[in-house]
Amino acid sequence: MRPAGGGEVVGVITESEIRRAPKVLLHDHLDGGLRPESIVELADATGYGGLPTTDVDKLRTWFRGGAHTGSLVRYLETFSHTVGVMQTADALARVARECAEDLAADGVVYAEVRFAPELHVGQGLSLDDVVEAVLDGFRAGSAGTGLHIRALLTAMRHQARSLEIAELAVRWREAGVVGFDIAGAEAGNPPTRHLDAFQYMQRANGHFTIHAGEAFGLPSIWEALQWCNADRLGHGVRIVDDITVDPDGNATLGDLASFVRDVRVPLEMCPSSNVHTGAAPSLDRHPIGLLRDLRFRVTVNTDNRLMSGVTLSSEFAALVETFGYGWPDISWLTINAMKSAFLPFDQRLMLINDVIKPGFDALTPPGAPGA
Fold first, then answer.
1. Which residues form the domain of 33?
2. Whether pTM exceeds 0.90
3. Residue 369 belongs to some domain of the structure
4. Residue 2 lies in a domain
């Protein structure tokens, strides 16, 4: 077990302890985090008849089994059912409210949750109706919890509505939308197809992240950064392909990897999901270990809590078990995420200084590394 923060490991941090820590989540899909019981109830309420089963426990197992295939394409197929029950304003508001409740219960103090408005207009909602319903749900679910939750609007990379969704993100940015994203199968759908949307966001002084380097390799990352000027990379796992480690453990960075580290490009890594989609071979061989050691701007995220069967706390607990991380590592990764959020600077600073650092100080036992 690798010593956390370069010092001696003191005790083993449990998932219940991590749940009490103030955490930050930058990469979480609204349609990938539904409660199974809510899916069944919403299917009944909305008349959606496509579920593989209406038994809640069997449905939970079905989602996880369907996602753990090692294929991003197969992984994405499970979303037809969650999206299928999210076609009314009431359903969207409920899912968003429950998302906020679940994140708050997991100790998340800041979250950016993304969704694709264009996927929720099948029963007559407008794009603005979709955004309004989700933001209403976020407000209701986070009220009184200490969770600050914001939205990222996602465009599907295989469709042609990205500029429209970027304009939507700017239109709602004073009401809780903090950025723009593209998602979907990477192969055959390079980010440069959506260059007009990214250029619009830049002209509007907006923020955006791009799913890149998950199922596709270095060209996807290079395009996202050098053509599209992404603020962050969704996943970015394949940046490890530009790093060579010799038998003595010495790492040599290629030009792209050096650029990513030098300019502190945030990497929105989702360890369990990356294994489930085949982006990483296993958790113990996930690039996050090497990238954290090399001090890339790594962040830890959930991606799809339903499909991967995770929470942010369980993701950190898995890293503790796999890489021997301690409180200094968890704190470092959390502050990385808060620094990289699309929230205004003064609000980021307030959460770091008034919430995150004091929260970790209270959890770090005397004598622990970094205490």
1. 11-361
2. yes
3. no
4. no
